[in-house]
Structures are given as C-alpha cells and as structure tokens.
Amino acid sequence: MREVPLVMPKMSMTMTEGTFLLWRKQTGDTVRNGDVVCEVASDKVDMEVESPVDGTLGRLVAEPDDVIAVGEPLAYISTDSDDLLGGLFDAEPTTETTPAAADVGVLEPAGVAAGATAAVPRATPPSRRGPQPAVPFARRRASELQLDLRTVIGSGPGGVVTVSDVETAAQTRTAATAPTAAPVLAPTEASTPAPTEASTPAPTEASTPAPTEAATSPFGPTEVVALSRIARVAGPALTRSWTTIPHVTHHDSADITELDAFRREIDAGTDGHRVTLLAFIMVAVARALREYPRVNSSLSADEKSLVLKRFCRLGVAVDTDDGLVVPVIGDADRKGVLELSGDLTDVSTRARAGTLTGDDLSGATFTISSLGGIGGTGFTPIVNGSEVAILGVSRAAMQPVWDGSQFVPRLMLPLSLSYDHRVIDGALAARFTAHLARSLGDARRLVL
Ligand code: CAO
What we know:
By secondary structure, the chain is an alpha+beta fold. It is about 25% helix and about 20% strand.
C-alpha cells in the first residue's frame, strides 16, 4: 500500500496556483480511477479533479478557499495499484521535462500524480475522461438549473463547458424528459452553488462561504452576504499584484474635442454596434505600445529580464453583475476602430452573459480599464500580474483650457497610467501617456 498525492492541476499555461473549492469525496471513501474527488478553480475556469488511481481517500490537505500552488497536494490516496498514472499516459514518453509539459495548453488533465507530468507527451495531451471543466458562470448556471454538469458536452477550448452548453443541455432535458426524470443533483453531489444570498450550500461542500452566522454589531443590524465567485477568485490575484508590484500612477489628460465630434459622426452612421471612445483609445494604445515596447512586456520570474511582446493583446475591464471580468482582444494593433468596436461589443456582451472561454481571458499584454461611461476624474487601477502597466480612463468633461490668449472650452479626457516601477520609470510613463494624449488629440491621424 502506498500513498499517492492528488495535486492541484495546471489548467492553463499561465496558471501557477488555484483555489480549492469543495470535496466530492470524504476521508475513507473508496475511489476508482477517474472518480471526481474534488473541485478547484483557476482565475479562468472551474475544474473537477479526478482520482488517478483506485484506492481509498486518506488525508485531506486542502480546505475550501485555500489557494494552492500547481502540483501541490490537495489530499492523499492510499492505493495498491502499480499503475500510478491510471493508464492516462500510455503513449511513448518524450524527453520533455516537467516545465515543458506544463506548457501543453489550456487544460491539463486532472488528477495527475505529482511528478507524473514529466512523461506527458507534449504534442498530444491525452483525451479527457469523465467530467469536463467549466467556466465559472457555466457551473453556476448548471447549479441554478439543477443540471448535472457531468452530463453536459463542452464546446469551449479543451472541452470547457460554457453557459450556452449548459442552457442547451437544460433545454434538451426539458424537451426530452418528464420533470421527475431530470438529472437533479443529489445534495451530496451538488456542484458550486450560485453565489446568491439565497443559496445555502451543504456545510461540507460549500464553495461559496455561506453567511454562517448572523453578524452582530453594537451599533445596529447587519447582514452578511457572500462574495460572488468572480470576486473570490479575483481577490487573491488582486492582493498579490497590489502587494508585490511597486505601483505608481501617472495622470494626464487628452484634448478629445475633435475626436469625440468625429466619433459621434461615425457612431451615427454605424449599424449593429456602438462606436464609443474606447475603440479609439484602443487604437491609440496599440500604436503607442509599438512605439514604447517596454510598456508591452512582462518581468521574468527571476526579475532579471524583460519579455518584450511582439504582439498586442488588449485586456478590457468589463463590469458585470457578478463583478469585474477582463476579456482580451487579440491583434489589437492590426485592427481599426470599427473592427475593435465590434470586438468590444462582442466580448463585453459575452462577459455579461457568462459565455467567455478560457482563450477569451488569456494572454493580455496590456489592459485598459474605462470608467468613462460611469464617471470620475481619475483613479489608480491595479496592474495585472503578468503585465507591467494598465491604463485607467475616466469621464471626459468640458473644461476651460488656455490657448495662449484666452480660455476656450475643450473636451478633456482624464488618463491614469498605473505601472510597475521595477520596469517603467516615471519619465517613460510620462512620455507614454503624453504620446497617447497627443494621438487622441489628433483625430485624423488616429484613423489613418
Ligand atoms: N468619457 C465620456 N463619456 C464616455 C466615456 C468617457 N471616457 N467612455 C464612454 N463614454 C460614454 C459612451 O460614449 C456612452 O455614451 P452614449 O451612449 O451617450 O454615446 C456611455 O458613456 C456608455 O458607454 P459604455 O460604458 O457602455 O461603453 P464603453 O465602450 O465606453 O465601455 C465597457 C465598454 C465594457 C468597458 C464598459 O461598459 C464597462 O464595463 N466599464 C467598466 C469597467 C470597470 O469596471 N473598470 C474598473 C475596473 S477597476 O480597475
């Protein structure tokens, strides 16, 4: 009898740690190779972790909401089996080492015993067996519709289940079965409950921390509400960025009087989607990043070198009912205003519908956070961990500007560039932002 660790799987190329959600099995339970033992989440997808062997579930290491590094144990399984890889990797092993294998792609197989990744064939990841991974909104929707996620076929990359997969499956179920035949989850198998005030998950499996006790205050009544899943998953990443990246925010403003007049003309003549200021800002940012490649980079893990990205993928913060989501628009430097407007409408609509895929959320080289539609005169956005700067955009307002002989009314757009001071110094930040402001001030050149 030996002990095999059940480890935090690597679910995307950039994933270094995940959040443990809940146990599906308990200590002492017999598990078969491929049985779902627990659920975990990265900042992009939720995933069920399967046992890699037949055995008995022993010590549970992880607790709900623990953040655990990829490859670290979640629990231990006692087994007599010699097939510690569970037959998953019968293909000829290559000479690839663990880090290369870890780069295989978006969704690594779950339940791989520690050390086993060294033999993962790089080009042909084994086909997934058992349950599929799901985007967080899909899991939540499945829970709301009382649909067993394991019955849903995922159409996203790597077989990720999307919200539309869940809804299609639910419709099919409704059409095909009497209500009593619906695959309603037994309480012990309940997947992630919807993070609403109404949800009351079973104590041992709650992935959303329940308002366990009525909070009291000597000053008056209070109410405890659970954070949304997005907020709970994003929280540790934000804390990590804020506490590990030395942030400085540089403020400037752009005169967009002509640009906005031009934008309104285009918007009025465009069918199908709105053309907002943000698309013009994206064009200007993409061009500025080409001029200032250091701003479109990552700091290496040992903090000794910079990885300059020769491509431009812009993350755009989108406000949704469940919290902030940052979908990514690829090839932004090769697109014009109309195409970017269409892309922006597409990703923001899907972000709010919860139908973004892992790919939509990966690989940003720079991020824009626009609060311009809401208000404000400036703010200090937090740099995303794998980037070195983020642009905050606030609401444009008419202001008196001195033209050398008199004050004239001009539409001024506030820009706030937060940057990683290890990579970007104040002078570079000021030059980059001034360049951006000049581009936005010259509407004709921007659209050429
Ligand atoms: N100044 C003045 N008006 C602005 C503006 C600005 N900087 N930016 C947008 N507007 C206007 C738009 O033109 C539109 O007005 P009209 O309907 O009269 O033309 C209105 O505000 C609404 O715009 P919008 O917000 O719907 O569209 P957008 O393209 O500007 O932004 C999106 C899209 C998805 C980025 C936005 O809806 C959103 O979610 N923003 C919130 C992002 C966020 O939460 N950031 C904070 C993260 S913490 O770092």
